[in-house]
Each structure stands twice: as C-alpha cells, then as structure tokens.
Amino acid sequence: MNVLFLIGRIVFGGFFIWNGIHHFADMGQLTAYSRSKGIPAPGLAVAGTGILMLLGGLSILLGYQPVLGGWLLIIFLVPTAFKMHNFWAEKDPMVRMNQLHHFWKNIALSGGALLITFISSWPWSLQ
C-alpha cells in the first residue's frame, strides 16, 4: 500500500509542479488570458498562482508539510475555478463546454487536495 500511496503523491504533486512551471514558462500568454478575465495585476496573479502550485505540488510529492501543501492548492484551485472558468458567463457553446470541464476539474482536484489535508501518516516522506 505504501508504494501505491507514493505513486499517487508523485502523480498528484507532479501535476501541480508541471503546471506551476508552465505558469512561468508561458507567463505572457497566461497574463494576457488573466487580463481578459478581469484579474487585477494579472502578471502578479499568474506568478503567485504558479508559486502556489509549485509549493503545493512539491509539498505533496515530497511529503513535507503536506497539510499546508494541500491548503496551498485549495487556495489556488477554488478561486481559479470561479474566476477563470466561469462557464455560466460564456455565450459560445464550445467555449462554455470547455470552461465547464475546467471548472469541474478544478473543483474535483480541490476535493482531492482537501482529502490530502486529513491524511495523518505519510510513509516515505520528508516530515
């Protein structure tokens, strides 16, 4: 079971590490998209959310302060779902469907992050 838990940590944490890196690698495009969604200080928001994803993902992957890491991801995921993926405001059916999927992806991932905050034993971790 410990091996499966470690694999889950690698996959879940790695997802956020990869996307956090993507935030910095594609800062210009993501800043422009954030600006189009009305995000104040969009460049700072992209950098800040990139940091939340990197720290949260690393925390879970390494098992170091995983409760804090889970909360960092929740702090990123829930507001992002509502502000960036507000499918209800889209007129185009294709865009609306795309945003709907992203919205529920973020909500589901936040549920997984919330579950992580309640795990008390982290085998093969840095804690």
Automatic annotation (TrEMBL):
Matching Pfam families: DoxX
Highest taxon listed in the record's lineage: Bacteria
Keywords assigned: Cell membrane, Membrane, Transmembrane, Transmembrane helix
First-listed, main subcellular location of the protein, grouped into a coarse class: membrane
GO cellular component: plasma membrane
Membrane disposition: Multi-pass membrane protein
Subcellular location: Cell membrane
Regions crossing the membrane: 6-25, 37-58, 64-82, 103-124
Homology family: Belongs to the DoxX family.
Protein's name in the database: DoxX family protein
